[in-house]
Design goal:
Chain B: InterPro entries: COI1_F-box (IPR041567), LRR_dom_sf (IPR032675), Transp_inhibit (IPR041101). The complex is a heterodimer. In chain A, 41% of the residues lie in helices and 11% in strands. Chain A is an alpha+beta fold. Chain A has a two-stranded antiparallel ribbon. In chain A, strands 2-3 form a two-stranded antiparallel ribbon. Chain B is of the alpha/beta class.
């Protein structure tokens, strides 16, 4: 297992190595801190990481953010170790890359970590309360029936005579009582 | 059938035969375990006379080991996936495959009459094999929250198991191709006592087949079905003279049509799905007879609950959603003094879908604590809570064996947190507690409170800790106690790998651990501090999945660790990683 020195931390930000080689137990340590001097920070990142991070930035972000607001793409120039590379990235991607670079060299503060995502650890607030499958299924069915019945209600609003429909939201029971 | 030696063995001066006779009356597995430790002869006798085994996790021993130890088993219960699978947290292909077990059963466990598989993956081929080899003796088949099979597999069972008394499929995910399986059951079976395909979404079943089953099976006592129109069941109800329990159905017509429906005289356990205010009066004629009421899938509001529950003085079991509200809980406490089990599930999150009165808080809990003194089981989703309510429960509910409470995350501010003192009072008062689940939020319970739990849980065997404690010292305080804790589930807590490993080593009865959400170490190997012989450690790495609600969510990693005589699993799917593999 690779362990790195303090200046170049192996970070699997996009969890790429998880699929290919489970042996590599890498983790991401990030803190929400203000973005510092971009060049100074990027110069300290492991080159491999930087390459993979930027290369996958396009695909990963599309997968991660379904509500993707189309933003203008602009060139991002990276000076690293004597080489110059230019990438077309969106502002979101650029910010993430900068945060990544920032995280690579920051001091870890365990107490106030807000995005502590190691191979296992995700801080408590990120775990949504999940529902039992059978109940979830029932609530879905009920919603479907409610939508359907609302549609019928709307179309029979002014009809007279006997109506055989299911009404089960209080709102609608009260509405019928008023008629 | 038993292999008896010609020579008359003597154990402690008494003949074998004496012990064999006595052992036949000892059923509790813990008692039998004690017997088997006395001496070799008693070990052998116990093994030969053991009728039932429950394996809390099917990977703790191999099928061959089970068969060698208990060759004359008549009933077996196997559990596969972690409990979290019921909440969609475990990858579908995680494991718990029934195949190796069915193969062993078919080959050598010739006395087996009852098979109960829970949260396992079962294939049609498994059902076919089971039906072919054991069909003539099989009396009980329970595929409980299982998946992987279709109605074709069920048809094999219906055709081959003519002596089947119990067919239980509740909450299983069955691939539905047709309703043949029920038709075959109706044609071939006269022994059926329990038929359950509740919550399976099996809809191609014919009410005529149900009617035929009711006619042919004179001992039919419990039937739980899917969404079949109630009016189509008139014939079924007419013929099911022995029926005591019915759940399922639905109401698609106007309430008037249901008024004249006749129900079997012995019906005392009921759950009518999609029943709303208008249809509720159907239940009134026999409400006073009701011992169990399932309103989880009904469409009643708080007022309806109050109206109905008032009429059920003999109620022993109630399951419903939190739409019952505090007011409904108060009515329950006044009217249902015989209540033994109460389960209050979480209703819809959207306000317009549920009654605005539909929240349960300390007010409802206190009423129940003071009114239902026979309560043995309570599981409740609360929107608010106080220490006083928990103290009241500790003072009054002396028969409580199973306590589960989840604090919903809708309200920003909770009246009275942390719950340290209330929980301590609850645990010291309810000293018969065997199972305990507490799911709060950050700030809900301090490290001191978590230590209290450890100190006051003498008899508790299973625990779920959700969002409890503040730091590792809480977990370490906790793990110094809990002398009987066998199975521990932890979710959303902030404990480090190191603390988890240390806790495992301190909890002397622990044989199963499940964790989701923890502070990983730099190397990811701190967890190995708990490595020891016969202790399997598995990781389910973080993954993205579409939740039941259709949103893509990130699943954090899980740790699963358990004692096993079988060594590491040999059937890992890609989504599960054994920790010893990583260590290489």
């Amino acid at each position: 297992m690779s362990e790195s020195s303090s200046s170049a931390v192996e970070i699997d930000f996009f969890r790429l190595s998880r699929e290919s080689s489970p042996k590599k137990l890498s983790h991401r340590r990030g803190t929400i801190e203000s973005v510092a001097n971009i060049q100074g920070v990027i110069s300290k990142i492991n080159p491999e990481l930087l390459k993979t991070a930027i290369a996958s930035a396009n695909t990963s972000f599309v997968a991660n953010k379904p509500v993707h607001i189309a933003a203008t793409v602009a060139p991002m120039t990276v000076f690293f170790n004597g080489t110059i590379s230019v990438f077309d990235v969106t502002p979101n991607q650029a910010e993430s890359i900068m945060k990544l670079a920032e995280g690579a060299n920051s001091v870890v503060k365990p107490e106030i970590q807000q995005q502590n995502q190691t191979i296992g650890g995700v801080l408590r607030n990120d775990l949504p309360m999940s529902r039992k499958r059978s109940l979830r299924r029932f609530l879905e069915k009920r919603k479907e029936r409610s939508v359907f019945d609302n549609q019928i209600l709307d179309s029979f609003k002014y009809a007279r005579g006997y109506i055989s429909i299911r009404v089960f939201t209080r709102k609608h029971i009260l509405a019928l009582k008023k008629d | 059938m038993e292999d008896r030696n010609a020579t008359n063995h003597r154990v402690h001066g008494m003949s074998d035969v004496v012990f064999e006779c006595v052992l036949a009356y000892i059923h509790d597995s813990r008692d039998r375990q004690s017997v088997s430790l006395v001496c070799r002869r008693l070990y052998e006798l116990e093994s030969q006379t053991r009728k039932h085994v429950t394996m809390a996790l099917c990977y703790t021993a191999t099928p061959k080991q089970l068969r060698r130890r208990f060759p004359f088993l008549e009933s077996v219960k196997l559990k596969g996936k972690p409990r979290a699978a019921m909440y969609n947290l475990i990858p579908e292909d995680w494991g718990g495959f029934a195949t190796p077990w069915v193969e062993e059963i078919s080959k050598s466990l010739s006395c087996l009459k009852a098979v109960h598989l829970r949260r396992m993956i079962v294939r049609d081929e498994d059902l076919e094999l089971l039906g072919r080899e054991r069909g003539h003796v099989l009396q009980v088949l329970k595929l409980d929250k299982c998946s992987g099979f279709s109605t074709d597999g069920l048809a094999h069972i219906s055709r081959s198991c003519r002596n089947l008394k119990v067919l239980f499929l509740e909450e299983s995910q069955v691939i539905e191709k047709d309703g043949e399986w029920l038709h075959e059951l109706a044609m071939n079976n006269t022994q059926l006592e329990t038929l359950n395909f509740y919550m399976t979404d099996l809809s191609l079943v014919s009410s005529k087949d149900l009617e035929l089953i009711a006619k042919s099976c004179k001992s039919l006592a419990s039937v739980k079905i899917g969404d079949c129109e109630i009016l189509d069941l008139v014939g079924f109800f007419r013929f099911a003279g022995s029926l005591e329990e019915f759940c399922g159905g639905c109401f698609n017509n106007h309430a008037e049509h249901y008024a004249s429906l006749a129900y079997p005289k012995g019906l005392c356990r009921l759950g009518l799905n999609f029943m709303s205010t208008n249809e509720m009066p159907i239940v009134y004629p026999f409400a006073s007879r009701l011992k169990k009421l399932d309103l989880l899938y009904a469409l009643l509001d708080t007022e309806d609950h109050c109206t109905l529950l008032q009429r059920c003085p003999n109620l022993e079991v109630l399951e419903t959603r939190n739409v019952i509200g505090d007011r409904g809980m108060e009515v329950l406490a006044c009217s249902c003094k015989k209540l033994k089990r109460l389960r209050i599930e979480r209703g819809a999150d959207e306000q317009e879908m549920e009654d605005e009165e539909g929240v349960v808080s300390q007010r409802g809990l206190t009423a129940i604590a003071q009114g239902c003194l026979d309560l043995e089981y309570i599981a409740v989703y609360v929107s608010d809570i106080t220490n006083a309510a928990l103290e009241s429960m500790g003072t009054n509910l002396k028969k409580l064996c199973d306590f589960r409470m989840v604090l919903l995350d809708r309200e920003e501010v909770i009246t009275d947190l942390p719950l340290d003192n209330g929980i301590r009072s609850l645990l010291s008062g309810c000293n018969q507690l065997r199972r305990f689940a507490l799911y709060l939020r950050p700030g809900g319970l301090t490290d001191v409170g978590l230590t209290y739990i450890g100190q006051h849980s003498e008899n508790i065997r299973w625990m779920l800790l959700g969002y409890l404690g503040e730091s590792d010292s809480g977990l370490l305080g906790f793990s110094r106690g809990c002398p009987s804790l066998q199975k521990l589930e932890v979710r959303g807590c902030c404990f480090s790998e190191k603390a988890l490993a240390m806790a495992v080593l301190q909890l002397r009865s622990l044989r199963y651990l499940w964790v989701q959400g923890y502070r990983g170490s730099n190397t990811g190997f701190d967890l190995l501090a708990m490595a020891r012989p016969f202790w399997n450690i598995e990781i389910i790495p973080p993954r993205k999945a579409v939740s039941g609600e259709g949103i893509e969510i990130e699943h954090p990693a899980h740790i699963l660790a358990y004692y096993s005589l079988a060594g590491p699993r040999t059937d890992f799917p890609p989504s599960v990683i054994p920790l010893n593999y990583i260590a290489q």
